[in-house]
């Protein structure tokens, strides 16, 4: 299973995007928003005082019916299945599908 807040096993980049509430506070769109409303937005994303969740930097999408997680690092871009299978790059994956 991939730890969505861990590090990429290929390039070592951190996938932890930081505390949801802290990251929302940094967004320009919330500059003039009441703090209580910002907390409501964070709560709608699963954040709470008891469970301070974080964003992931992984890009998550579906390819051929498989949920894949792609490293955000431009030098890496490795793709993994949710259970941790390294699928290489999307280019490598698509080439393998053509040959199959």
Tell me about this structure.
With 100 residues, the chain is α+β, with helices and mostly antiparallel strands. 27% of the residues lie in helices and 25% in strands. The protein has three helices and six strands, in the order βααβββββα. It has helices at residues 20-26, 35-44, 90-99; strands at 16-19, 54-56, 59-63, 66-70, 78-81, 86-89. The protein has a four-stranded antiparallel β-sheet. A two-stranded antiparallel ribbon has the order 1-2.
Strand count, sense and barrel status of the largest sheet are: 4 strands, antiparallel
The radius of gyration over CA amounts to 17 Å
Multimeric status of the protein: single chain
Poorly predicted regions are: none
User: What proportion strand?
Assistant: 25-35%
Strand order in the sheet with the most strands: 3-4-5-6
Helix proportion: 25-40%
Quickly describe the structure.
The protein is about 25% helix and about 25% strand. By secondary structure, it is an alpha+beta fold.
